[in-house]
Amino acid sequence: MKQTLLAVLLLFLTAPAFAQQDEAPEYKAVIIHYNADWQITSPEDAVAKRLTYFSADVKEIQHLGAPLFQHVVTDYYADNTIMAKGYYNAQGKKWGKWVFYHPNGQVDCEGNFSEDVPTGNWKFWSASGTPLADVTLDGEEMRVDNLWSDTGNQLIKDGQGEYKAPFPLTKGKGTSVLEGQFVDGYKTGWWRLTDTDGKMELEQIYDSKGKLLSGTVYANGVPAVSKVDLMQLISLPDYLLYMEHWRADPKYYPARYPIAADLLGCQITRVDLPKSDVTPADYYFQVLQRKSNGEADTLQYGVLVREASFRGDLFEYTRKNFKGPSPSYLGNNKIEGLLVISFTVMEDGQVKDAEVKKSVHPKVDEAGLRFVNSMPAWNPATKLGKPVASEMLLPMRFAVRTQYIQPPFTYSPERSFNMHRW
Questions:
Q1: Domain limits at 291?
Q2: 268 and 316 inside one domain
Q3: What was the pLDDT predicted at 319?
Q4: Residues contacting residue 181 through CB under 8 Å, at least 6 positions apart
Q5: Pairing assessment for the beta strands 3-8 and 117-125 based on DSSP bridges
Q6: CB of 104 within 8 A of CB of 127?
Q7: Do 288 and 259 sit in the same domain of this protein?
Q8: What is residue 369's three-state secondary structure?
Q9: Tens of pLDDT along 32-61?
Q10: What was the pLDDT predicted at 16?
Q11: pLDDT at residue 140, as a whole number
Q12: Measuring CA to CA, which residue among 352, 353, 355, 341 is closest to residue 9?
């Protein structure tokens, strides 16, 4: 007998509550300084910096501690030599042409991004200006058109040829020798890596489209099977990963500090909250922005919000009350997946505005909405001790299987790392 079974876990999302304006916002140029660990720091400790643009009105920035980069950005080395120049779209994704530079001003590499993913033709040069690579990217796939050695000798032409060149050791000093065959732009057949004494370190075999099939790593003369492609010929600069994650120098910025407000020259004051019977001691920041017309805006940033909570065991309540489509209706169809429903818990705890964010099947979606809309009142979220409306997400893993049950799970969309190595 088939049964409809599911698992649930509540997630909390803070919905932005900034007013929309009819006119496009005004933007202001700001400079962000980074230390050697790519943490945002003081100008005195900086080894690099970024020129970017924020909305001139601090209330238009949704996350003052880590706002999205948008529009043109220009990165510089400590001596003000340009490091990179590119563009972010309205969603904070790298878009269009980007150019990266060596410290001496010579172009390192250039190409295009589409929604954070490098795409199309990319070219690479050495610090002396000699060409290194000319490749075509399509998602995770790379087709090599031309490759040169560090001394300028062309090794691969029009996607064809034998590759043999020094290869940096992953551990220790010195270089190994990497050799293999390119056919139609892809690594093909056996590729081998040998150390300075001629001993085998790694060998791998690839299919005709450059897909790694199998490989053997030699450690102290002992082979071990491995499917990891350690022979990556090209990589894009990866410092952008750290910049985009807004890692603050703890010696310069306290935790949860509104960095964007500081960069815009706002007055920032820490407000400490006393400990009570129901809340721990905490603090937030009062941000004051003075405008050129003499007016001033204030906002509270980093205020502790106690999440809304279900009155009871949400998993047990769902198990007993969710009424999915009957097995007879679903028949032999394999219908399963993650159903995600958003809703708002109002100040009085009532559930409103249920909406399907991730669908499984029309009948399953309908059952999910019916279930959420019939839920009893929740404990509302509170801010500074006062009830506030809050947006919630309720993911439900739906499956129709025999004698199957899945325990509660964590539902957390992963932030993709957008630098690639090939």
A1: 250-304
A2: no
A3: 83
A4: 161, 162, 163, 187, 188, 189, 190, 191
A5: unpaired
A6: yes
A7: yes
A8: helix
A9: 999 999 999 999 999 999 999 999 999 889
A10: 35
A11: 79
A12: 341
